[in-house]
Design goal:
By secondary structure, the protein is α+β, with helices and mostly antiparallel strands. The protein has helices at about 1-25, 105-130, 135-145, 160-170, 170-185, 375-380; strands at about 40-45, 45, 50-65, 70, 75-80, 90, 95-100, 190, 195-200, 210, 215-220, 225-230, 245-250, 255-265, 275-280, 295-310, 320-325, 330-335, 335-340, 345-350, 355, 370.
Length: about 375
């Protein structure tokens, strides 16, 4: 009996303890569960202001002379020096004598023809003096004005058919036009610069013998430079040709203005671009070089009642986040009028005064609480 009591005593103690614990726990109240605080997102916003927003087209291309000229010889003779050394890289001014071909022979031919003309006029003048004394002073003055060191003056018009007959009988017309032809040939011996420019290449040196068809060199016009730039075909309709183009270069310091002179009418099938040609206004700036790479900022047409939205604030190409008056985010579709490299122009879906979120958001949903970044900073202070 005593041994049974020893075995049952621990069991009874355990049972008594369990009953006492249940009894005491019935008097304890469960603590209230705390509701999680709503997550507030700090966002950067900007108030929407609707206005007329000009579009902008960016293009790249190289600057080149719009008037390269290749010099070819049209006569025989020895190449002689002009006003400057005809070498690559040499600059020149308009009117400078670049090169010349030996003119001694052609000068003698012209003077011989002028001598024949004077002889013919000396024979016809007495006839005119007798038959048409009132016209004699005109032809006498012309005879006196013919000089060997000057161009032949223009032949006076014949007053009547009889004077024309006299002139024809003594070959005055034939000799006169022979002289004019020789003077044109003389001009082909001289190569005057038709513009301010630079020498690109020189194929012959002074002292070389030139023949008709011989290439002498190439020059370019530095007063008339233009940039040829490809522009996406869809952007052509946005170009406003009435406004100047701004040009910059990563190779040369400076900013220049230009004017769109021509727009191509064909599309490059590989790149779907159209060539535009921009004439550059140097305004005396000598820093621009033929072949320099330029960036053109071309003004576009104005989009009314629109605003600029950063690209990082646009989602799925047509949605933006707005901060509403109840401090919650809303997801709204917008109408994009034009896409620029760094921003888009929106002309539908936004109202004046809307708080537009202008930063990229991650891990947010419409209806989430949010505060403006500026207000959050003021609250912390």
């Amino acid at each position: 009996m005593r041994r049974r009591i020893i075995y049952l005593l621990p069991v009874l103690i355990v049972i008594a303890g369990f009953v006492a614990m249940r009894f005491l726990s019935s008097f304890k109240t469960a603590p209230e569960k705390k509701k999680p605080e709503p997550v507030v997102k700090i966002v950067e916003t900007r108030s929407v202001e609707l206005d007329d927003v000009p579009a902008e087209i960016v293009a790249y291309g190289r600057l080149a002379s719009s008037q390269p000229v290749i010099l070819y010889c049209e006569v025989d003779g020895t190449l002689q020096r002009g006003d400057l050394d005809f070498r690559p890289g040499q600059s020149f001014q308009k009117g400078n004598l670049l090169l010349k071909i030996d003119t001694r022979q052609i000068t003698l031919d012209i003077n011989t023809a002028k001598s024949d003309l004077l002889t013919a006029l000396a024979s016809v003048l007495p006839e005119i003096k007798i038959d048409f004394p009132e016209k004699f002073p005109v032809w006498q003055d012309y005879f006196n004005s013919c000089r060997f060191d000057q161009k032949i003056p223009e032949l006076p018009a014949a007053a009547n058919q009889k004077i024309k007959l006299y002139l024809s009988r003594f070959n005055v017309y034939k000799i006169y036009f022979t002289i004019r032809d020789l003077e044109i040939l003389y001009e082909k011996h001289l190569f005057y610069a038709p513009f301010k420019g630079s020498i690109i290449s020189a194929d012959l040196r002074v002292g070389s013998n030139a023949r008709p068809g011989t290439r002498l060199g190439e020059i370019i016009n530095l007063e008339n430079l233009e940039a040829e730039m490809p522009v996406p075909a869809d952007d052509i309709r946005w170009i406003d040709r009435s406004k100047p183009v701004t040009l910059t270069s990563s190779e040369i310091e400076g900013t220049w203005t230009g004017t769109i002179r021509r727009i191509g009418k064909t599309i490059d099938t590989r790149t779907q671009t159209v060539q535009i040609y921009i004439e550059v206004d140097q305004s005396g700036d000598e820093n621009l070089y033929d072949g320099v790479f330029l960036k053109a900022t071309i003004p576009g047409l104005t989009i009314p009642n629109a605003c600029v939205v950063p690209r990082e604030a646009l989602y799925e190409q047509q949605f933006v986040y707005l901060l509403e008056e109840d401090d919650k985010l809303s997801y709204r579709p917008v109408q994009v009028a034009r896409r620029q490299p760094d921003y888009v122009i929106v002309n539908g879906g936004l109202n004046e005064g809307d708080l537009l979120v202008v930063e990229m958001l991650q891990g947010v949903t419409p209806g989430m609480f949010a505060r403006q970044k500026q207000q959050a900073s003021e609250g912390e202070n």
